[in-house]
């Protein structure tokens, strides 16, 4: 008991007891996290301004600012922001995720020859659609370019949308198209609040998304016409067909809109950009002959004695351009004071590196890959790449699930409906439909720091039955094993016909030209 408690207890034991009971209750309240992260009494946490809210309150109310700042960083506000997004895009998408049909031939009752022919037919038909710009509603990109655009837009803006309209075109075999819509165009009609519509996303009583609301022009652009909103249902009421694809990364339950990937590091990247520009300017000034003229006699600006065509800014006599190796004539009574910015800064690289390691951790891109600077050992560099590819594979799987595969299934349905692909029972049973449309999507490989070690490791995995040639081919080179085998057969045949390769008829070993098998 402190002195005050002792005085109160001596005067009124009842009040003294109450104070002791209340103090014990406060200790119980502040136990557990109350003494640590949730403490309201620790000086280290008193200045923490925090506020919690629902996903809609925390995200949607701040999305407009987050999007614009994220795009500003990407478009030149910070070179590292541009590099981070492009690094992710290049590794996840590259030149495009290629289709590899993996339909269930056994379930569908196909023989090996039938399955092989069916697979080749799917690839030919899909390439006919995907390689053409007719697959884009705006006829600007093919399907693989749309993958890059959709992914990059999602990273930059937090989410993006893809509509799947049917557009009849004379020179197009298929009518289905992909129309990408930037995130800003999905918003509440007339910007009015609605408990069922938040951020342009309409949900039902169960929280399921049933429709999206899109404005007919970009809200941040020039308003050339009256704003009108269109309500697009997620699934067609009669056909059940998917009308809208929403690409976003969910981080909280009941979240309706996505957050730009740069959101946690916007301030850090902006400040690093400012710091870099300041250091660069200081280094430039330091490399020039920089002086300040101190005069006690003349109030005229230094540039007042120059001809108009020699002045940097004729309307501002105080504007002077520094030059390397300049010699400036001084007036009587003037002295020279040199400026030494002390640049380049010796600790610049160390400080920036420390900040960028934190930025890389938030973006799941190791520092070495973020700045494309591999100076550590082979093991350390390889560990950084492996860690990065955990994130890249996760994002690729997400894009396949939310973008590539749904579009492929809708295209497949049209191909079957038009008789371009024969798939009995496709529209009769959803299980048969799923068996027909199973597919894998292969993208760029991780690359190798030491190709020989990587190939030897892949060979060992195949020998120990831990992997397959098909998977290792896709992982190492991004190629297709069956395509490689067919090409090698053709190449070996050409070499053999040209006398550049001899095949031993007994051992079936390939002998190079001029090599002879030793006779026992």
Question: In a nutshell, what does this entry contain?
Answer:
The protein has 16 helices and 13 strands. The protein has 520 residues and is α+β, with helices and mostly antiparallel strands. A hairpin with a 6-residue loop joins strand 12 (501-503) and strand 13 (510-512).
Structural class: alpha+beta
Note the gap between the termini: 104 Å
Question: Segments where pLDDT lies below 50 for 5+ residues?
Answer: 513-520
Give the DSSP E fraction (strand runs of 2 or more residues): 5-15%
Instruction: Please trace the helix and strand order, writing H or E for each element.
Output: HHHHHHEHHEEEEEEEHEEHHHHEHHHEE
User: How many extended strands?
Assistant: 13
Radius of gyration equals: 34 Å
Mind describing the biggest β-sheet?
Answer: 4 strands, antiparallel
What shape does the CA trace take? extended
Helix content: 40-55%
- Main-sheet strand order equals 4-5-6-7
Our count of helices gives: 16
Mean pLDDT: 84
Structure, described:
With 520 residues, the chain is of the alpha+beta class. The chain contains 16 helices and 13 strands. It has helices at residues 3-11, 13-29, 43-46, 55-59, 63-77, 79-92, 112-130, 143-157, 266-286, 348-363, 367-370, 378-417, 430-437, 451-463, 469-476, 481-497, and strands at residues 98-101, 159-163, 179-182, 197-198, 201-203, 209-215, 229-233, 244-248, 291-295, 334-338, 439-442, 501-503, 510-512. Strands 4-5-6-7 form a four-stranded antiparallel β-sheet, with no helix packed on it. A three-stranded antiparallel β-sheet has the order 3-2-8. The chain is extended. Mean pLDDT is 84; it is low at 513-520.
